[in-house]
Known about the structure:
Largest sheet: 3 strands, parallel
Order of helices and strands: HHHHHHHHHEHEHHE
Mean pLDDT: 79
Oligomer: single chain
Amino acid sequence: MTATKTPAFHKPPLFTRQQLIALLLPLIAEQALSVTIGLADTLMVSSVGEAAVSGVSLVDSFNTLMIQIMSALATGGAVVTSQYIGRQEPKDAKNAAAQILFILSSFSLLVAAVVVAGRHAILRGIFGSIDVDVMRYAETYFLLSALSYPFIGLYNAGAALFRAQGNSKISMLSSLVMNVVNIGGNAVLIYGFGMGVMGAALATVLSQVASAVLTLRCIVGSQGMPWHIRAEKLRLHGDVFAAICTIGVPAAAQSAMYNISNMFIQSSMNSFGTSTIAAWGVYGKIDFLFWMTINSLGIAITTFAGQNFGARQYDRVRRGIVLRAIENLKKLSPAPLGNKDDAALIQVANYEDNLDLLAGCDLIIEAIAERMDWKHDLYQKVAPHIGPNAIFASNTSGLSITKLAEGFDADLKSRYCGVHFFNPP
């Protein structure tokens, strides 16, 4: 099969391979560190007893839900901000940045107020009947955790702004400081002063305050950068608010579904006793550590896609994701490539920008889902670009070749056939 080369980009890439790696690696570290706060509290408070571990674990599942919702809202703002940065519109980028801070601070303050006022009812409503000791520890941890929500919101807003610009090191360093303060605070307050669950909660609040202050300090000190924000900018901007919510709210809902389902599972676990609650809580934090690490890949793609989309370099958005997938072919087991170097022979293209490449191909194989209507729609799109001597084939394993060829002219129909291959074991 032969094909012409795709046209070179007319503009230099917004992100080189090295820059993408520099964005991704700190994100992986940050996402892993963000989970270890609750994990450290759960493990270090175990010296108090199973009831304490159970109480902290119950509240931490709700805290994780709030963190994921705020992170998703911040991601919506990061997408909008990165698009403005890609279009080189610093004024709009600054307005979007201010709106992220406004949304996250307002939402986190509201949630904190609701939790402080109704923590007992919330715990009962979500987790049902709980042992008296577990409830006592849970309420203590829940009350102080609620005080940290505004700082979590500010941290997520600030981290999203730096990611939008392609800088993930600031949020990673903030997460590192947060963990050091939390673990150190736990050691002093739990083991030194014997404060138990209250000590773990106070250490968590202090760590969240430290990370928020550090992140905001970097924002305030970023004179001349797209995200530099003054206090008077922190007000509602209807159009920017709507744009952020259009992306952030569905993302938050998606994140919430996963965590809410876990909370329902944990609620059903409560009937098995304190030991089961504690074990499930520890397992959940370890499991979430891996989940958040994978999530960092999505955050990196958000920044890459947002800036390229804003710069109207749509082809890079489509090609960039596929190129990453091709690179991953080298790492799969069993290996889909006999020789890893053969990955360089794969030429990336898409139906929107590169249909003209079909004219240089001798063999064209269609391999989409087994839907007659989908295949016919695709054939209508590609048929005008197929060369006069090319063989056109379908990878179908169950659809009629005769029916698939309906709509072709006599010449193309004579060059159409089925070519099926199976995946290796």
